[in-house]
């Protein structure tokens, strides 16, 4: 590989530390690089020692090319014709153009150095143009992209940093992936253009993330206040302009008496531009964030201990509430020990990466539908990973059998194995066959790591999740969960064997090197977990499931493309990122309904959807209004309705909806309303 590095005009200009850290990945990139794929097996030529003319990667331009006798396919830069054409005489290139190129592109630097000596710009221009046409794939793969216009002026443009592409994949799209940096310092990368281009790509593909600005209302749950950004910002700007004008004029402006009053005025002005919305996509599934007891405990702890933890768990941030909550969570999942993290993303990433680094020769088996936190944790462990089809136990068995067979063939001891999966998959609402999967994993000596983020608080007698509901708690080795969804607060955790959890506690950077959760949040979560383990929790779970069933039946009955799933998540298929965003925005702006569009990369292209999460506090009237609004928007954007054979319309009928349609069925009444408002 060292020979390839010496030949590559880009790698040999990088630092040694970069090359050391890149390791074996360099070969993978080289095999896909239109330049390097043709030269990996070529011998390295010695560099020129001429002090008068620059030399680059085996090309000593002392009036001839060291590779001139080699075939064009053998020369790494394919420069035989270019170099020979450059040696014939006069007009002179502008020195500024030559110097610019010499600093930026090793190809052009070599060629134009010869031109400068021979004073033959015309020949160089023709030769370069000929070479560019002949080797277009190479040109498109070059991160400096040499080109010349008719006047002979040289332009250098940077390639955006992207996945290496084979030469045959060059296209106009790839040509447009380069940014002009000619107006910038020759020695600097054009960061602004690069990131603007990356953002533009997302916008062009309709996957640019647009956040909705809402403040949920505890006293009116599940309602929220949404802010019109332009009106609110205009109101705030007027206040700030008043302040600025007074300061610049050195006059006493007409201002509130204190900064606090100024902030209150800004909030009031923002509220004046707000609109109340109904939230149908929150992960605060049971409304515990606004539970009176949970709020009161948080307020009391803030009053006593302040709003922050003051440090990491190791340095002044380990409070009594943290330890009590960890004991509660261990008890909830019938495990020996639990460990708190700032979020379940951190819990998954830190725990899986630590397991992989500690277990010698560990192999991970990951469900293809796993959350990004699990994917990143496994990747950061540096361990081999086998991805099995979503909930596909036959595929998992095949992968496990192959690795065990390899161990037998090589005569090596069984390697540690970890099978990672979720109980409820957050976007599609699929549920894992936990019992069968755990049995399969254990039969091959593997540990099981289950993410119950979208199940804790919602399923089981005490809210421990799907494993508890289906009586498979003992089959799960490690469980991760969140305090920020059904429990309504913030934070994440793992629970499992004492020795394993203790190892993560002592090793995981995501746990060790971050400020711990605030005491108020931890105390509030502790109360929430205890409430949901009791009768109130069981009542809320029953009401929640009834609300989910009512919504699913209602939307199926009117023909909306509700995806089939057995959990509390109700996904409606759209199938186009642009349309999905438009539907979401239309519902928000014109119907006061907030349902977030779910687009790639959260879901695969073609599986874009609206993700609804009805809760125990959504009423029948709210559901009727939602159904009508969805149908109106579906009609507006010509989205297809579907026939569901299994759909059953709820028996109760709302007169406020049916009085427009006489004795029609609810489905016909909705359809009539849509047509009437279209």
What does this 3D model show about the protein?
- This protein has 678 residues and is of the alpha/beta class.
- Helix 17 (393-410) packs parallel to helix 18 (434-443).
- The longest helix has 23 residues, at 535-557.
- Residues 42-94, 131-182 and 645-678 have low confidence and may be disordered.
- Strand-residue fraction? 5-15%
Give a count of the beta strands, DSSP E runs of length 2 or more.
19
Counted by DSSP, the helix tally is 27
Oligomer: single chain
Structural Rg: 32 Å
Main sheet overview: 7 strands, mixed
Helix content: 40-55%
Mean pLDDT: 77
What overall form do the CA principal axes indicate? globular
- Quote the distance from N terminus to C terminus: 66 Å
Spatial order of the strands in the main sheet? 9-15-14-13-12-10-11
Alpha-beta classification:
alpha/beta
Can you describe this structure in just a few lines?
This protein is an alpha/beta fold and 678 residues long. The protein is built from 27 helices and 19 strands. Strands 9-15-14-13-12-10-11 form a seven-stranded mixed beta sheet, with helices on both faces. A four-stranded mixed beta sheet has the order 6-7-8-17. The protein has a three-stranded antiparallel beta sheet with strand order 3-4-5.
Relevant terms:
678 residues; alpha/beta; seven-stranded mixed sheet; four-stranded mixed sheet; 27 helices; 12% strand; disordered C terminus
Question: Topology of this protein?
Answer:
Layout lengths: L1 H6 L8 H7 L2 H8 L22 E2 L2 E2 L19 H6 L9 H10 L1 H13 L2 H14 L1 H6 L4 E3 L5 E6 L12 H4 L2 E3 L10 H14 L9 E3 L6 E5 L1 H20 L10 H14 L1 E6 L12 H14 L14 H13 L4 E5 L2 H15 L4 E5 L4 H10 L3 E4 L4 H18 L6 E6 L11 H10 L2 E6 L14 H4 L8 E5 L9 E5 L1 H10 L1 H4 L6 H15 L1 H23 L12 E4 L3 H15 L1 E2 L2 E2 L10 E4 L7 H17 L18 H4 L7 H12 L1
Parallel strand pairs: 8-17, 10-11, 10-12, 12-13, 13-14
Antiparallel strand pairs: 1-2, 3-4, 4-5, 6-7, 7-8, 9-15, 14-15, 16-19, 18-19
Helix pairs in contact: 5-6, 6-7, 11-12, 13-22, 14-22, 15-16, 15-20, 17-18, 24-25, 25-27
